[in-house]
Design a protein that fits this description.
Blueprint lengths: L1 H16 L4 E4 L9 E4 L9 E9 L2 E13 L4 E6 L21 E4 L5 E5 L3 H10 L4 E3 L1 H10 L7 H10 L4 E6 L2 E6 L5 E6 L18
Parallel strand pairs: 7-8, 7-9
Antiparallel strand pairs: 1-6, 2-5, 3-4, 3-6, 4-5, 9-10, 10-11
Length: 211
């Protein structure tokens, strides 16, 4: 039992490392201003972050989102995403475009998350394992779906809700696995085995919001 626990703990440690914010600079910006290179390697396709310009009299300004589209041992290529960015008082937005030398923060807001799981016990276990994450109450998502008359959430519902609430990642329990999804691209960043001694399943997910 101890061996299993140690292996699981090591897996969780490596898993969490992939969710940590890292800061780097843009290089080799393409002529069409759609892609750039960053000097971080071995990233997951679909990992996202934000591009920041800090040349405006020392102020940091969010320019856009960006998502990893390819990665090797040394570098990665990111594609810019100019969807509307929710304003933050600390970092305002602008109409400026990215340029070489601008800052890229990968895994931005990954620790702001939401758990979609079949029962309360699964949610509790995840919160214990990831105690340094800020998990939004799933009932807020349930209420959002009810207001929009969407009992079974679709991909666009999750992306829109995550965007409105500044979530960087989504924890999804499915078929005895725990998946971490990037909230911008909604691609799986990591998957680990996840079992609990509770087979209760609440459809489409655990929430106190009634239909």
């Amino acid at each position: 039992m101890k061996i299993i626990f140690v292996i699981f703990a090591l897996a969780m440690s490596a898993f969490t490392a992939n969710l940590t914010e890292q800061i780097t600079k843009l290089t080799n910006l393409t002529a069409n201003n759609k892609e750039a290179t960053i000097n971080l390697g071995n990233l997951k396709i679909g990992q996202s972050g934000i591009v920041i310009n800090n040349d405006l009299q020392g102020k940091q300004v969010i320019l856009c989102y960006a998502t990893v589209i390819s990665s090797d041992n040394n570098n990665s290529i990111i594609k810019f995403d100019f969807r509307e960015i929710i304003e933050q008082s600390a970092i305002p937005k602008t109409k400026l475009l990215p340029k070489n030398g601008d800052t890229f923060i990968i895994n931005h807001l990954y620790k702001n998350s939401m758990i979609i799981a079949p029962n309360f016990k699964a949610i509790t276990k995840i919160k214990q394992l990831y105690s340094n994450f800020n998990f939004l109450d799933i009932d807020l998502f349930g209420a959002y779906l009810k207001i929009n008359n969407t009992p079974a959430p679709k991909k666009e519902d999750i992306v829109t809700f995550a965007h409105l609430n500044d979530l960087g990642s989504i924890f999804l329990v499915e078929n005895k696995n725990l998946h971490i999804l990037d909230a911008i691209s909604l691609t799986k960043i990591e998957t680990i085995p996840f079992e609990i001694d509770d087979n209760t399943t609440i459809s489409p997910f655990q929430t106190n919001v009634e239909d």
